Batch of 4 targets.
Target 1
Amino acid sequence: MSASLQRASATRSSLAVLGAACLGLCVWLAVRQAFFDGGSRRALTQLPQDAGGGADAFATESSEACARQAESLCSGAAADELTAHGDGQAPRGEPQELCAQSLRTAIETTLVSQIDPGEFLDTALALTRLDVRATPIPESHPSGALRYPVLGTPEGVNAELWVRRSDNAAHGGPVLSYRISLPAAEGYLMEGAERTGLDAEITL
Amino acid sequence: MTDKSGQCKNFAIYTDCRPTPDTVRASFGSAEQIPTGALFSCDTEHPMEWTAKDCLLQGGMPKDSTQSQPAVRGQWPRTDDLNRLKTNLQRVYSSL
């Protein structure tokens, strides 16, 4: 009788231990699951934020890169820095539209006897960073200039490198010029006359 | 333009605001002067001393005005940038 009571007691104890173990396991699993879910949610909710942050950073970086490119193409100071750090070959790119617009304004202003030489200088510096076709335009020009098209200019801007022999014996080497043309899509009125486009020639 | 020692001597800018053929035709026989552009030049040793010649259209024919002194706008002089342009132009020319 006592033996059977002892066995029953031992069985109850075992069941109690097993139940406690199961309960502990369930609690542990629940806590782990809750923690995991929370972590996942945090991860999922953070992901778009991170992606958004990354996109914002990229946009900022892109705009800064655009600004840097514009600066490098339009600023002599930046070109100086690039030349100082590199092999004298600044990165290739297009002159920014802003520069073309500035050049347009600078050309139009010359009709009233005003000159912004820095604007033309910046334009020429920007053009020196673009490639020039190795073969000249086959058609001869009345000035005798050999004309090499500048490649990679933005739409609406044409440029050529003109190479001429100087008549002045005091000059050394050929005379080099950039000839820039800004054709107008349609005629427009300026200083009392209708115009078809603008040209500038910069010679150093 | 550069001298034989390679120094910049002259910086010149020519501009042309092209009139339409109709404008040119209309100007025939007229005494009216239409400004078309200008030729600016400065000695790089005296970069503030610019000279200008206005280019005009009169009676359908091109005509240059007498030499004058233009108003200079913007940041000027920029001697270092002029030397940089000379160096860059020579590099482009030597690559041809």
Target 2
Amino acid sequence: MTAPVTPEIPHRRLAGNLPHWTIVLSLLVLAAIVAMAVAAPQLANFEPTELNAVMRLQAGSETYWLGTDSFGRDLYSRIVYGARVSLLVGAGVAAGAIVIGLPLGLLAGWFRGFDAVIMRVMDGMMAIPGILLAIAIVALTKAGLVTVIIAIMLPEIPQVVRLVRSRVLAARAESYVEAAQLLGTPAPRLITRHLLPATVAPLIVQATYIYASAILTEAALSFLGVGIGTEIPTWGNIMAEGRLYFAMRPWLVFWPAIVLSLCILSINLLGDALRDRLDPKMKGRDE
Amino acid sequence: MTIPGLRALGWAAIAAGLFQAGPASAETELNVVMQAPLRTLDPHLSTAQIVRTHGFMVFDTLLGMDAEYKPQPQMADYEISDDGLTYTFTLRDGLTWHDGSPVTAEDCVASLKRWADNDAAGRKMMEYVASIEPSSDKVLVLTLAKPFGHVLELLAKPSPVPPFMMPKRLAETPPGEQVEEMTGSGPFRFVAEEYRPGDRAVYVRNEDYQPRSEPASWTAGGKVVNVDKVVWQAMPDMQTSINALQSGDVDLIEQVAIDLLPLLQMNDEVQIGTINPLGSQVTGRFNHRLPPFDNADIRRAAMYALDQEQLMQTAVGDPEYYTLCASDYGCEVPLASDAGSEYLAGSADERMAKAQELLQSAGYDGTPVLMMQPTDLTILSTQPIVAAERLREAGFTVDVASMDWATLQSRKNGWQPVAEGGWNMLFTYWGVTGIWDPLVHALLDGSGDDNAWSGWPVSPEIEALRADYLVATDLDEQKRLAAEIQQIAYDQGFYYNAGEFQSVAAWRNEISEIQPGPITLFWGVQKSE
Amino acid sequence: MLYYLLRRLLMAVPVMFLIALIVFLILRLTPGDPAQAIAGDQAGPEQIAAIRDSLGLDAPLTVQFFTWIGNMLQGDFGYSLISRRPVLEMIGQRIGPTLALATVAMILTVVISLPLGVVAARRHGQFVDRLVMSLSVLGFSVPIFVIGYVLIGIFAVHLEWFPVQGYKPLSEGLWPFLHRIFLPGLALSSIYIALVSRMTRAAMLEVLGEDYIRTARAKGLSEWVILFRHALRNAAIPILTVVGTGFAMMISGVVVTETVFNIPGLGRLVVDAVLARDYPLIQTIILLTAGTYVVINLLIDLSYALTDPRIRYQ
């Protein structure tokens, strides 16, 4: 069985024209968000779980900079702490998807015997809508951080496998790999020395997109009521809890939405920039 | 809110006798957003409020309960023998099922038996019943083997599983299986073709229904339907529902989030009010079979630590719509009692000090409390968080486990150790109609039986008092027993009574004559063009 | 061509079987009890046990799995555990709104994003280009429910141009249908518009550098004819690919959009089914969407041949 006959897609330079300052700005925003996550205890004015029933749904004030939520918790402090979970979810999902997807992709690309089996399983996984799988996994097990990471990660794996596999297939055709093969270089050495490096650049780029979409998916799961519990603030569950009060206190939704969107915007822009620098031939996130 | 008066009586007479032809004007359709989606239809099998409300649309009951908590004739009149052991029910004339066949005593006997199989209080009653038999087409006789004081109350009770009547062939559905055909004898017909489970249910006026001549009062009296069609919709988003009400897409929202009332109060096309005057009690249940709550002192410490006002304020907000009281049977019912209120008295700080002291002297060893929290049920999602904070302050170690409501419900049924999927504490709420006496109140069951509702407290004293209650017919005697039971339940920390909240409905000005009741009732309601 | 089609269809069989197995196992190996969902929270254990017995969930898993597969092969998709309605009937009731929503979103995507992409490519490097590109990144970065709320806030509540919620089928008239489906369609299409306009722009840039475009220009054809007739047609393949792979993304958008706009579609049905542990319903819906995904991608592969004569199938 051969590879699907998907035609070669002309390469694109999605962000080739992005001015330098957008990249600098994205880096600054990301640095700020990472700093926010790391220094959350110092930055926050309150414990993110500290309740005050009398001070529910307050508007912004000197004490509560961005107001309070329906438990009377400080919105600003929760958003600051929320950065931790969102970044963690993004990192966990990206790392997990690559750790699992990379070896599978290498195997599928190099050993024809594995290819058919692995790719059929991946096709199957890709066909199951990620959000439905994630809803099922989270709802049916336990709404904890690890479950959410796993649930979001699983649907991302096939993307990684396909990307790595396509890179390996391309690399196999390169003359230096053929030469090494003819010289009798053992497979493990061949893979680590010649094939793996070819996948690094596209993987880094892919990782940024997985990172961004994981944060969005976490928010969507929280929105649907199957996310991480409210004792751990995430931008997603802050918005989900705030949405009941949207008409009265729209900032309960807008503040976390702005931070979340800025964060994802920056990651996406950075991904585009990285793609240009590292991997001008990359075919894209969308195949 | 309007209370039906003579006008309802007039309408009843008109509908009963003269006008069978239906309205001359255009069809009136009532569009309602219900508090929960309707997914199952069998009102015997489900304890969910929405299914009960559906039950009262399609099905009828032998007796109804009026606003004075008195059982009244509905499908049947009754007579009680002098020794109080024989109840004779005579079906009134003109009762037919929606398929046109007449309602018979045989149907009703089968329905009663099926109901009793599915209702905890009904099962209890059957322990006292010698037989239920039809004696003619129209008459059925219930004979007690030993005295039981609550036959009429149970047959009229509106919650959690009312004894709805259905044709014999449906009532003989095997146990545990759902009745799927919606053939009742109630004032509305269910339109099966337009039913979309979880989304939409449609009812039309039952033109053959003959209402009683008395004015409607709760589920008793004449059920006179003044609209042609009632359409229930589920809207998962409260904001969306409110938008829909304001724009006129719907006429009535059964339950509005209290926090959002200010949005509606500004709108002069919309009114808000309480349909069910009794409200619901929020309950924090301890698992008596697992440490640390297998120790009564530790349960009491937890009760001192928790604070009704804080719990209610966070869940409901506006104090106008919640009530703080000690009564386990509801704040405003005949059996209401303040026994045990010492556990709720004093300031929150004073009680916290007591809690800390008691917890220490009880030798609490730091065993974590696993508190279950539902993520997808707004009304119960705040209490576990608020309670966990207070318990931690008192010295407890608390793990909040967030999960969806379905998981929580099935997890609550098991008593294995926490590490194997058990639990220590959960919050639920109960319509006051379902807990208003020691017979129906599931959380006051002191049998410790595996088949009791989750929590499994053991108290022979309470069981003895509850047995006395079953045969007590005098109200003062019932009150005394209920208060004693409540005191013991507090002393032994059966559960934490977290206060009562009201459901608030909102409707457009075109809607009038909404009937107060233990659930939302759709007879009586009028809609002007 | 026919051989290729057959081979692809055959390849889909093990894939679908795998999906069925994965879904079945995930659902059955996790806690939760549909009997509880039927009985409600105030029911006692005895009653729940009776209901569970009647549902036949106590049979061994392997038996349940193969019974399910066997029945499906005979066209019997089973009954909802909760509402006792045939699963296909329930899906049939809900699929219309979802299809309508997806179609409108797709049309909006094409109508909005193709011109945007073409214009951006034409004005490559200029202000318009940067604006389009920046907006498209924004489209990826804002959660769909936030977009939905903003749209409702502005266009329905404030300006009152559209109804705030709900769905009317096409059978009730074109205007009521469009009037209600437009905002949700727009919300759902936001991410696609971002995706497809970027892709169009990139593909157009590629094509605009080709010789035949220069030839066309030399022949003096009008700029719009060149852009839309010649260039866009040749840029169609990557665009189609995006549309196909975007299907999975659309499902996720559909679930959220249906909730925000109160559209009684499949997305809400499946979320409710998961929360109530309605196994047959969940399984069938996931299989259905997975099957749709497989078919759409097959169609897209086939359409390459139609749009690009250079492609041949083995």
Target 3
Amino acid sequence: MTDLTNLGIAALRDGVAKGDFTATEVATAFNAAVEAAQPALNAFIVTTPDKALESAAKVDADRAAGKALGTMAGVPIGMKDLFATKGTQTTAASKILEGFTPQYESTVSQKLWDAGAGMLGKLNLDQFAMGSSNETSAFGNVISPWRRPSDTAPLAPGGSSGGSSSAVAARIAPAATGTDTGGSIRQPAAFTGISGIKPTYGRCSRWGVVAFASSLDQAGAMARDVTDCAIMLEAMAGFDPKDSTSLNLPVPEWTAGLNADMKGKKVGIPREYRLDGMDPDVAKSWDDGIAWLKDAGAEIVEISLPHTKYALPTYYIIAPAEASSNLARYDGVRYGLRDLPDGAGLQDMYAATRAAGFGPEVKRRIMIGTYVLSAGFYDAYYTQAQKVRTLIARDFTEAFQQVDVILVPTAPSSAFALGEKSADPLEMYLNDVFSVPASLAGLPAMSVPAGLDRSGLPLGLQVIGKAFDEQGVLNASLALEQRAQFTARPAKWW
Amino acid sequence: MSDYRIQGDTGEWEVVIGLEVHAQITTNAKLFSGAATAFGAEPNTQVSLVDAAMPGMLPVPNFECIRQAVRTGMAINAQINKWSRFDRKNYFYADLPQGYQISQLYHPIVGEGAIEIQLDDKNPDTKKTIGVERIHVEQDAGKLMHDQHPTMSYVDLNRSGVALMEIVSRPDMGSPAEAGAYLSKLRTILRFVGSCDGNMDQGSMRADVNVSVRKPGDELGTRTETKNVNSVRFVMAVVEQEARRQVALIEDGGTVVQETRLYDPDRNETRSMRSKEDAHDYRYFPDPDLLPIELDDAFLEECRASLPELPDAKRERYETALGLSAYNASVLTADVETARWFEVLLAETAARAKKPEADVAKQAANWLISELFGALNKLGAALETSPVSPAAGAELLALIADGTISGSIAKQVLEKMLETGDGAGVIVEREGLKQTSDTGAIEAAIDAILAANADKVEQYKGGKEALFGFFVGQTMKAMQGKANPGMVNELLKKKLS
């Protein structure tokens, strides 16, 4: 029998449905792969092999009973530890939530279980999804399965969905959930040679997802290829009355609608993304992408998104502002860590709890956010940033009058080594330069592998679409995927 | 301007008062969660995951709360903002699970409105209009319990997330009486509208009292804010105490500091809670978990159509259409339950008499205000819990109107009704209280009285006509109050002529 861990969502689901193998065999194979890789990659905060087997047994029983199977039936996945899972510890990779076991299940994870998926475990991430390298987790760095051919230096899997990207790239999970606030699905997908889609803001319910920046946070799918992403996103998306910002729209049949023919489609290439000093390999992969979409029948149109350069500073005002307020609930009063020094009062408890519970990057963003919202600075920072955000969104609206999708690189470089950028937050923040604009505009965007750079590491291409047009994004991404012929995978060194 | 003045050593001082009233919106569910809002429930039994601010929980607006705020705004003729938004007010406290209160700073749902007060019901010159700056909707916090453990405080989140309206007045009041009248009137309006039960003793309505003093004609002085005052009487006391304290402070060479104070009813004094220097920077910003509230015309129309007749309009109608005195009209409209009771009584009374309501309104109003209120007062009972229903009252009034019983007998009958819960007709029959129009019996009684008081008859005939009342009284007494008074008068006049 083939190694089941080489298969993706569609192949596993279809194989289980046809009876080529059982869901239990699939879960067992991935459980073993997770266990073998965990010491080396640290992709999971907790593993839940029993949960995976339990879901698999139900799928096998349903199949035996002749019941209809869900679109993810028999597929065990990794769940980013930002999604609340009933009865399983949920930490957001922070000490402040260590040991916290929710009594509720996030809407997105529930939908996946309802579709027949099982849970391999809770995936590591940057603490509260704040980071681009998965180096801010309180539960240790996640290591990318990729290595430069030249050395064995541990590489960053990207962030914040670093556990997700590492696990999917290492083939210890066929797919994983991610969340994307400023690029946290797309950048790790690009770093690890997998596909990842962030849908339109509001497509996936945020209910039960630990909040980072409410106006930006959006769940999405990370998997081996575009088709798998479509299948998984279809299972995750949908209106949720428990989330006021959830889109009250039916979920299109994205998988059935997949079509790589780009004839009659216009692809925008924004000149502002071609930065001075751009990594030549990134520039080349972008050119490759342009050629591939042209080959698929698309017309290439140069466009302008004039406010692009303000996106990063705007993001780093709005996201921390919201985070500073969203994270106020971690106060030691009701759940999670409580540090109550002898004789301490309420204020001392807050200070001690939050000092001990939050990591340095989280504290930095809380301080930035508190600062930009404080009296005397609010208008200069927060109000101004909201205005610029509106202009950035308008740039896209205007561009989409001319084009159907936009093609840009996902990240300014391939994966860097752990520690390489963690000393300088600003340099780390620059990783988000290509991903943040679509987040601020709430648009669907996807990263697909485009090839390897000179150091032998994957690069990603990003397709940005109109609001609600995930189909257009998936289709262009499929056209890229078919031409990129990306078959490289990390050697198994663990 | 009010003519209320504080007499200081350096002369007279004016008082300037503004009230911020927190009114709990009457709904079964909290503002942003489905949790219940029952008063007096066991601690932490009315708490949802949202109210406890568990990770990943999100607020979803309860549109009934929005509707009630809009209806309240309409009831005070305020501008209704078709576009409003929720903001977060950020601060840490153990009774605030989210670490922020969801409120409306920048775009409240209700804008400028006004409430008319009248200090003296009998004097229209004491009318005054108090401006309302805004009404916004916000979450209540939980409650700390300090008396449950020797060294720890406990938190009860039952109130956490309960919907409040904050109704902010202009600083248009100038005396304790005006502040009291404003608060009472506001409570009356809220109860008429049904948007708040107005139960101040249960905390569903409470006031932050802003007070400053100045020499007449001067600029506004520095104000203090006394928080969470929970009765009309206490609000009036706070104004008086705080104004006196400020005057004494200034006259002693001190300055009033802008600060938050607390009222201690046991000592009848206010105490400093925190000064402006300790004031929080609340870092208000739009709540990104919530979309703006956009109201369409159909919704506003529905809100307007659902409003009942409001107290001012009702009082006006009672005076003009029903012919009631200003005083009676005011008493009957001061409380929504009283007005409801009166209107049922009126309808039943008119139906029994087969007359228009206007013809029986005075009788009904007088009986309700002087007879029933008096009797209930004696029993320490309230109208809401009165054993006598409006229909039973109407039956009693009908017996008076058709001459079955006299007014004085009616008092006895009412007492028995309150005591037994029986109907007026049943009591009159059982106790034999029917008025008699039997000419023979009355004549016999009169003859006996005139015979026994021959001297007084002489005096009367000699011109001392005031004695007529004496003969009436004696006759009624002899008849045990049951004689028809008109007939007694008529027969007496005939016999004495």
Target 4
Amino acid sequence: MSSLSVAAPLPTVARQAPKQWGRLTLIGAAWSVFAFFLLLPLVIVLTEALQAGVGTFFSAIFEPDALAALRLTLLAVAISVPLNVLFGVAAAWCVSKYEFRGKSILVTLIDLPFSVSPVIAGLVYVLLFGAQGLFGEWLLEHDIQIIFAVPGIVLATLFVTVPFVARELIPLMQEQGTQEEEAARLLGASGWQMFWHVTVPNIRWGLIYGVVLCTARAMGEFGAVSVVSGHIRGLTNTLPLHVEILYNEYNHVAAFSVASLLLALALVILLLKQWSESRINRLRHSGAEE
Amino acid sequence: MSIRRFAFAALAGALFTTQALAADTLLNVSYDPTRELYQEFNSAFAQHWKAQGKGDVTIQQSHGGSGKQARSVIDGLRADVVTLALAGDIDELHRLGKLIPADWQSRLPDASTPYTSTIVFLVRKGNPKGLKDWGDLVKPGVEVITPNPKTSGGARWNFLAAWAWAKKQYGSDEKAQEYVTQLYKQVPVLDTGARGSTITFVNNRIGDVLLAWENEAFLALKEEGGDALEIVVPSLSILAEPPVAVVDRNVERKGTRELATAYLNHLYSEEGQRIAAKNFYRPRNAKVAAEFAEQFPQLELVTIDGAFNGWKEAQPKFFSDGGVFDQIYQAH
């Protein structure tokens, strides 16, 4: 398979040799756009962060407010990602294994957070749980704080990350159909056994890919979280919000140091994504060959 | 149990255990340019509180555009004290949120304003466009940077300072409105807060002149060194009075009234006044003011009460929906 795909284009290129410059310009353009819009900013973040030396870099990262922001960001990820996995699997299951009315509406609604601006997502929670909001008085009476506290930040993160796992799983599970599950049931498996031994192994890599995307978004979310955060230093600032605060305080080195911490986390996630993506492709190809 | 799993658990534990809440905490919700002031004042107050035998206190800070911060407190941000850019924003806490009584401003000395400031111009070194007074700002080709008066308290002081000068210069409200309309036509970016505008002007090098809090202008000069920028003091400006208040409904719920009151009172102490002056706010205390007299240029200052009959009249007239600002900015 792979040897074929390399060998196949060769004769075409040879035949169209005069047009090769077109290909080269396109590739060159793609690379220069990539270098200018992606690579250059990354390099700038790192050079700004390290311009005052490694010592300043690490002291900015290990400063208590930065650690508190890291802790809050990881907490938001740790809560929102598992919940999204649950929701994503359930939604994808519904959509791919059952036929019911309003299915296409459900699929469309899952995508809503992609199209709604994060600021609106944040404001919706303020309107629901803020002191002037729908549940405001009740929450106040029971001394429960959602907005401008950790629960609000988790909710906002959840909202913007809802589609990731479901979006990844729906096409995968639809492609796989229900045959294997039906076979499992016929052979006497319980519902749980069927799910655990047939469905999960089949969707494993898609699930991991969705989780990786979801984690990346949860860590980086700025808009929705900014609206519900209240910006209390060391308490309700996530890493992206902390970067903005440091920048606004003329503290460029610290801002870019913390930014490069976010960047490092993002790179780890990117590698995970690449890895799970290649696994999915291999799985699909082996499936196709069977 | 593998070592790896143990290490992971230990790491997770270290990350997620919240600090023991032994110390009292106080949340000060403030506006944009006071970051440096309250950083210094908070540690001074914590020492003062401890020296009185009241134990440790942790002061949490939140900063942002003044109007936005007031909105957050109304929406449920549990501030013990607010230290905002203008009385109009704190009035909203009473009007919309019933968080404080109507007479909040008479509860502390000097109309609850422990320090004042004014509005000055920050220009590029050498003042290449020759901007000396408000009249020069509407010359063709001059770009003016100021934040959005809808969200920023500093921007409202900027607006009113410009209005006050034009009214004195040209003699009528109509002429003043013409001048201010032209002024806002020359604003390329409206940021949401004073700090955003400063960054736009100083770091992103957009615009020829920044209308800024005096303290913000001094701070920008200090941070960026004196070789890129200079301050121009106009012939007339406004006495900007950023007031402070205890948020009654919140301190009663949290039981922090004594702490919150002591915190604000300490702003009026000699130590508090000196910290304010060091951070380029004009102190109220006569003795401290004399110490720092050389730092602050002398200029004619109108007051919000004298020239505009107070915020209760100025806020709806100029900045509410459909007010003067909306009219002139829509025309643009």
